[in-house]
Write a structure and sequence with these properties.
This protein has about 220 residues and is mainly β. The protein contains no helices and 21 strands.
Amino acid sequence: MQVSIGNNSYLFQDNGEIKIKTFNNFIAVNKFETKYGLMITEDRGEWGGSLYNVTENGAEEVAYGNFQHVFEYNNKVYAISSLSHLTSHWSSLHEIRKFDDEFVKITIFRTEDMTISGGFCEENYLYFYSNSFDYNGLYRFNLDNNELELIHKDLCWMISVNSLLKKDNFIYIHGNYNLIKYDLNSKEMEIFTTLEENQLNTLYLGRFKLTEFWDRLFLEK
């Protein structure tokens, strides 16, 4: 099952269907199964956080930082750390390796003016959204050659992205009360929302499809 974790929700595929699970409270701790065993991310905002590896021998701190997501590609383990506080934004992508029973964090990409939100890996690409002022848009990072590509600038200014998922040629971006369905071929999008029309922010771009419940989606609170 493919999953994209956010602080208040996660998107996942279940038998080919896109589903959403939301939480009433901020989720600061997430768990991920890796080749090293269970990895736990902890994000306490401006108070820091940690990445832990949990085995039958107990929990070991792998690295310190605002870790939010862990994924695997090409038999490698990657971790994302990111923080937005006041006017500052920074994000990093790290490879986690183990040498002689010691974990090492190798930073392969770092930026101090953008965020990595809703990271989702498919094949050799990490897809994510950046909410920062100067770098607002949908991006993908090539894990083979470490190149960053802008897919769509200023896709949706006002959305606070929780999670993101790719299925076929579509990117699904979840945040606030909305879900964006973005077509990578046509560069067009639809926004599914539970908000009334007079509640929609006029800065949103695209075609709205207003429904009482998100169309073709299973919403569980």
